[in-house]
Every structure is written in structure tokens, then in C-alpha cells.
Amino acid sequence: MITPRFTVLAEGTFGVETAKTAASAIRYLPDRVSSILDSRFAGSTVGEVIGFGGPIPIVSSLGDALALKPRPEALLIGIAPQGGTLPGAWRTVLSEALDAGLDVWSGLHTHLTEDPDLTARAAALGRELVDLRKPPSDLVVGTGLAQETSAMRVLTVGSDCNVGKMTTALELRRGLEERRIRTGFAATGQTGILIAGSGIAVDAVVSDFVSGATERVTLEAGRGVDVVLIEGQGSLMHPGYSGVTLGLLHGVLPQCMVLCAMPGRSSIYGGNHDWVDLPALDEVIRRYEEALAWAHPDTPGKVVAVALATYDLDEGEARTAVKEAERITGLPTTDPIRFGVAPIVEAVEARRAEVTGATSG
Amino acid sequence: MITPRFTVLAEGTFGVETAKTAASAIRYLPDRVSSILDSRFAGSTVGEVIGFGGPIPIVSSLGDALALKPRPEALLIGIAPQGGTLPGAWRTVLSEALDAGLDVWSGLHTHLTEDPDLTARAAALGRELVDLRKPPSDLVVGTGLAQETSAMRVLTVGSDCNVGKMTTALELRRGLEERRIRTGFAATGQTGILIAGSGIAVDAVVSDFVSGATERVTLEAGRGVDVVLIEGQGSLMHPGYSGVTLGLLHGVLPQCMVLCAMPGRSSIYGGNHDWVDLPALDEVIRRYEEALAWAHPDTPGKVVAVALATYDLDEGEARTAVKEAERITGLPTTDPIRFGVAPIVEAVEARRAEVTGATSG
What we know:
The structure is a homodimer. Chain A contains 12 helices and 12 strands. Chain A has helices spanning about 20-30, 45-50, 60-65, 90-100, 115-125, 165-180, 190-195, 210-220, 240-250, 280-295, 315-330, 340-360, and strands at about 5-10, 35, 60, 75, 105, 130, 150-160, 185, 225-230, 255-260, 300-310, 335. In chain A, helix 1 (about 20-30) runs parallel beside helix 7 (about 190-195) and helix 8 packs across helix 9. The termini of chain A are far apart. Chains A and B meet through helix 8, helix 9 and helix 10 of A and helix 8, helix 9 and helix 10 of B.
């Protein structure tokens, strides 16, 4: 998968929390993002609106995006709405993008490649439609194969959705690589796939195959490396997504986990799910370690560190939140974006020494 | 869905444990099963081979099946292999069945209605292909809606696959209806759908939608009844299917559960998964009650009875197994097929009094 230069469609949604795909593309593929399409912020730069991403321009129309030099090569749908369907009003923009010679990339559950109008138009124009969330057709039921990789398996798990599981894994990769540790990244969601250039969106596969898809990406990313980081999804406590989370946990069978959370959140995110209260972090950790051990009784994985997403707090509040999480869990804690990923890198390295020692001993 | 008269294709697989769809069709739709196709037992009756089902004939070829009076109207694929794909050798038989004027019904993951050859042939001949496992296209992420039904929600859960979750639910329905309690049955697997005439195979839906699909079938089957029984799937401890199980649990949010198990099994069923040991039944119960409470903290459901599948034991061994399970769990226990479902019916009724009392009090 060669990543083109994108204009990112985020009309009405650009910002830190909602346009997750857009924000992550800016953070991890900055030279591939030509512009952001959101008329509310047209004329500003990305850096001015979300605090990172520097001079990437925000434009109000596809025409303005096409006028930039160098010209974008594809349009990326930059949101991941719950349920993943295509907002009707965006259809027109997609058609116009194809007409203007752009490919269209999407991470929605609704596959562009199964839309008769769009596929006919793309075919006639010689353009490509890319569905990041479309799973391979040859998946199987999981059988614990992930245990065959010699790399240590590290899974990011969460108290909830949207708490930094992918970001923590990517920051951890950078931190480990800076210490010359060979590191693989297994993407399990559409944004991770966009960034990594490969992977399987496990929330889009037939439910019988979640653990099978997970072990496949784990084995692929685990080849020739010392540590393989697997992007977690959802939360065991999330009434909409918990099945994906447990299937992924039992597909990876990690020796090591990093818990991701947002300090301010006391219930599951979003109005449809906030009737579920979140417990304290030490209890969240106990639940992940226990659920993992159900299908992995001999060498159960441990949570070794906590990653907090503190972007909605000021500096002082963020430091207090980190201290509080350390006190409750007894584990190294950081916001990997705000305070650096070093404490997590060290905890993962310590666990690797333990696991390697146990294996050779 | 009007259920036709079937010949059931089970070549090389007919028997108690493997041809699950065939055996269940015989038990719950006996007047719809015209014959069983398995050349190994041709000339015998179903009753002679599996101990129930009486005089239904076993035949060696489609020709023999077609010669029976009244003639079958459809061919049913009577197995549910892991992964659910279509054995290559059976393709010919399916084509011959269409040629002979039969419809073809299937519960495989591989959808017949997406097979170009079979669909073309069926269309040309005016025959119907029915995919019991094909999910509706308008599913959504679950949001706890199942809690809106006024019927008490009862879920059968299992220590493993293939331990009688569907059978227990169907026997319980019969037992409750005999006591004039209005009872609904929500099918979540292909065989349950065949028997009930409706439902969604939750293991075949996109993984993000497992709990959403589950709440939909729960609400539908819960209309106008006092108790809605939901067919469970898989096991929290099964490394291949645990995600489906947890998504289903959090979709139903049951007030009441019945644990299904096989006394002899000490590890997860099948050579690909038997590296996972099964704990004692009281521990299995604790796990289900805890995992349910994660997303249902206010009115968590309880396991109220145990259903054992003892068909592989003799009478004395079976009685000992029931006593032992009662001792370990402190709960009423029975093999609903061998010893009757009454103890479970009574436990569910007692729970209903508790739940109703709590609701009105």
C-alpha cells in the first residue's frame, strides 16, 4: 500500500476528539496531508486549531484543496462515526473528487467498493476506491497461533473507546526504536492501517473471526522483531464493543499490556452508553488480567504501565492525574504525548527481561 | 419463513456430536425431516443410530431421498463445521438437488446466495437458496436496548461450545409453556433460526454489531411474553469464540442465566483449542456473573441453574455428575433431555418472582 498525498474530508467535524482519523493522519503522516476540508476553520492552519500539525492549511472546498501545490492525489474520509456509515451529504463531494482525478480512501463500515454508483464512476475515470476497513476474505477462527511468534506481544487496552490505544502503541514504537529495539506494529483499526500501510480492522470482520484476524496481524507484524505492539480496540466494559475487545485479547494472548485511559471520564463515552460507570483503574487492570487468563492460564500477561490522555486538562491537572493514577495502580504512568513515553518504554523493557528470562530459564 | 420438508445432507458426519444441525432438526422439527443422507448408515433409521428420531430413514444418495413419499421439498446442509465453509465434494450434490427441483438451505458461513454458479443455476430453475446464517444488512452498534423489554431475559451460557445451550433453551421453553407462562425464544445461531423460523446468527455478523444484533432479536422475541429465552453462543473461555460470547452477554444483559456444561470435559473442545483448561463449574459461574456486571452494574444477572449434557455417560454416571454439579454450584442441576427440565423451570420461575418483585417494589 503506497500512501498518496491526501486532502482530508472533515467538514463540520475537525477538532481533537471527533475527527480521529484526520488528527492521527496529521500526527503520524504529516507529509502526506496536503489539506483539511472543514469550512468552519477555512484560512486557519491545522496547528492553530488542534495545537499540532503546524502549517497544513484548512480549506473550505474541494476546489481550494485542488488548487494547492503540490496537488493532492486522493481524498481521505477523515472521520470514524459510530456505526461507520457514510453521511449522505458527503456523497456529492466524493463524486466530485473522483471527477477531479483523485482516488478516494475510506475507513467507514459502509464499503465504497460495494457502492454501485461510486464504483461505476471510479471505474469509468480510472480512479481507485480504497476501503481501509474491508477485511480479507480468507479469515479463520483463532486457535492461539499468536503464541508462536518469538517477539514479545504487547497489547494496548483501554478503560473505554477513544482513550489513546493506537497513539500509545505508535509512541511506544518510536520510543523502543530509539533504544534500538526492533519493533513491529500490528494495526487493528482503519486509522492504524492507514498509518502502518497494512493490518486488519477487527471490528469489521465477521465476529467468529476476530481472534483469528488478530493472530494473523500479530504474526505478520511480529516477524523479525523483538517486540510486537498490537493496537487495542474498545473496552471490556463497553456494552457496544466489548466482544471485539475480548476476541482481540484472546487472539493476541499478550505477555504485556499497557492500560490507556482518560482521567476525567467516569462513565463510558457517548450518550448511548454513559449508563455504564467506569471503575477505578486498579479494578480495570484486574479485569483485563483476569479475562486474559481465562484463555491463557499458564503464562498470563500483565498490565505494566498506564498511558493517560490528558489533552482536555491543563498542565497542573495533568500532572496531578498522572500522580493519582500511579498511586492507585502502583504502575509507571505518563501521558505519552504530553510528558513523553519513556516510563512506558522502561516498563515494557523490564517485562521483556522477565518474559525472556522465563522462556530461556 | 415457512419450513419445507427436508432431506438433510450429513454424508460422513451423522451422529450425536458432529452433525448438530441434523440432530437438532430431527429433535425439534421431526415432521419436517424426510430423510438423512449419510451412506455409512444407509438402510438404518435415525432412531437406531442416535437413539431418538424414530423411523426417519437414512439413505445413501440424493436419488434415494427423492424416491421417498412424500417427496422432500428442500435439501438442508446438516453440519456446522468450524469456520463454516462448504466442503468441495458437496457442491455437486447441491447442484443435483437444484436440478431435481429442491430448494437448498444452508447454515454455513460461506453464503450460497453469494456463489455465482449456484445462484445462476437456482435462478434458471426457479429454486430458492436460503442462507440461515446471513445477517440483515441494517445492523447497528448495541446500546443496551434489550433492557426495554418487560419480559425477563434468560440467557443460556456455556463452559464451552457444543454443550447444549440451544437445546436447554428449547426444553426450557417447552417446560415454561406447559406451566402457561408466555415464553419467547430468540435464536442466535443457524440451527436455532431453522427451528424458530427467525433470528440472527450473531457469529456471522460484523463484530461491531454483535450486541446490537442480540438486542434486536431479544426485543423481537420478547414482545408479548413473560419470559424471553436467548440462545447463547460459545464460551467466555473459548479462545476462538469468546468475543461473540461477551458481545452476546452484553447485548442481552440478562437478569437470569442457565449454565450449560458437559461433565466429562476438562478442556475446551477440539484439537485446536484443547490447550485451554476448563475450571470447576462454580468458577465458570463466577466468571459469567462478573463479566455481565461489567456492563450491567445496577441489576446484574445471576446463574440460577445448571444443565448438563450427559449423553456420553451411562445412567449411573449421569446421576453422579448431576449430584456433583449440585454440590459444587449449590444450584438445581439436571440433564434436561435425560432427566427432564423441571428443576430449571422452577429456578427460572423463582428468579422471575425475585426480578418482578424488585421491579414493582
